[in-house]
Amino acid sequence: MEEQKYVEMAAKIRARLDKYVEGKDFGYNPDKVIVNTILVSMAKRKEKNGEEYCPCRRVTGDKAKDADIICPCIYHLKELEVDGHCHCYLFTRQ
Question: CB atoms < 10 A from the CB of 54, how many?
Answer without folding.
Answer: 26
